[in-house]
Every structure is written in structure tokens, then in C-alpha cells.
Amino acid sequence: MRPSRRAPDELRKVSLERGVARYAEGSCLVKFGETHVLCTASLEERAPPWLRNSGKGWVTAEYSMLPRATHERTRREVTSGKPSGRTQEIQRLIGRSLRSVVDLTSIGEKQIVIDCDVLQADGGTRTAAITGGWVALHDCIQWMRSRSMLTGNPLKDHVAAVSCGIAGGQPVLDLDYAEDNGAETDANFVITGSGGLVEIQGTAEGKPFSEEEFLSLLRLAKGGVAQLVELQKLAVM
């Protein structure tokens, strides 16, 4: 039995609440169990300098964790002068994931910034941020379309993410902190609504995992992301 008493292929309770930030062009408070992440989408009228005169736009992300998102207070990274390696890696992952389903040429020379702030962490903050970030991005694009800033819809597909791992010798879906902390294998899967693989991050802790075990995790991830995409569809109806 898992610590959360969930079935091996069972997600934590997931919710996607839109429109939670008054001033942002798009926003979503995403909850994966006790992991809560506030995602906001902000439209900037200029693309990054390297895209100037290219006719293309950009989607990027920033990620941070509030000091008391965890059991003990962590210092704000701004006090150290730069984000940690972990923070940089996560925000780049979020940006890559969201760009994978956006036609950047359709945006024009504009930039959409997705800010993902972890209010409470219990494992899977990056996967929650990607899943909720898509909803915030969707609403930002709808905001632009409602003001005739876009001629079409640059959002080509859904994208969501989920963690899987081998805990207690068993492949399981959507690890919380208790499982993640002791898992033999931990992996994050980013998958589009049509089933395309965007990114896979997998690590063995001690004992290497087999191809069969990897495929079992992939099957779990595909099923989990399919459920998350359905929740995204319901959220933006």
C-alpha cells in the first residue's frame, strides 16, 4: 500500500482554478494533492532582443518556491543574487514544455512569461507547474484573441506533465514527497494531448532500472497525462 493509500495508477486529487490573479492576462492555481502552485501568464509587447525583426514571438517561464513552501524556511533566491541550478533547470523545462505546443510565429514579436510560484510543496512541483502553466497560457492567448491581437490560435495542443517512479519495488504514478524521497527510480514525463513525448527525465537511485520498468512507467505516465488533459479541457470550457 502506498503511503497515500492510492492505487498504483491513481493521481492525487488535482484541481485547476482559473482567473485567480486579477491583473494577469492568464492565471491558474493548480493543486496536485498538497502541492499548490500559482501560475500567471503576462504578455510583454516586445520579443527578446535575439528575435527582433524575426516576426516570431517567445514563451518563457520563471519558477520560484516561497520560503515556507516546505517544512523549514528556505531563503529567497533573490538574496543570493541568482537562481539556483535547480531553479534554472526547472524553469527551462517549463518553458520548453509550453513552447512545444505554441506556433511562435502566430504570436508576432511579443513574449508571454509564465511565472510559477510554489505556495506549498509535497513533490511534483515542476509537473504541476507545467500542467497549470498551460491553463494560464491558454487564457493569455484567449485574452489576446478577444482584443484582435491574433488572427488565429497559436496554441496547437495541450501539454501536461506527471511524475512516475518505482517505490517499494512497484511502478507508481504521481509521487508525493514521502514516495519521492525513498523511490528507487524517479521520472518526470511531459506529454502533449495528442500523445507526443516532449521530455522525459529519469533517474535511478542506487539500482538501475530495466527497459521493462521504464516502459511500465511510460504507460502509467500516458494514462496520467490523459487524465490531466481532460481536466485542462474542463477547466477552460
UniProtKB/TrEMBL annotation:
Its EC number is 2.7.7.56. Phosphate binds at residues 86, 124-126. GO terms for biological process: rRNA 3'-end processing; rRNA catabolic process; tRNA processing. It catalyses: tRNA(n+1) + phosphate = tRNA(n) + a ribonucleoside 5'-diphosphate. Keywords: Nucleotidyltransferase, RNA-binding, rRNA processing, Transferase, tRNA processing, tRNA-binding. Belongs to the RNase PH family. Homohexameric ring arranged as a trimer of dimers. This is Ribonuclease PH. It comes from Alsobacter soli. The gene is rph.
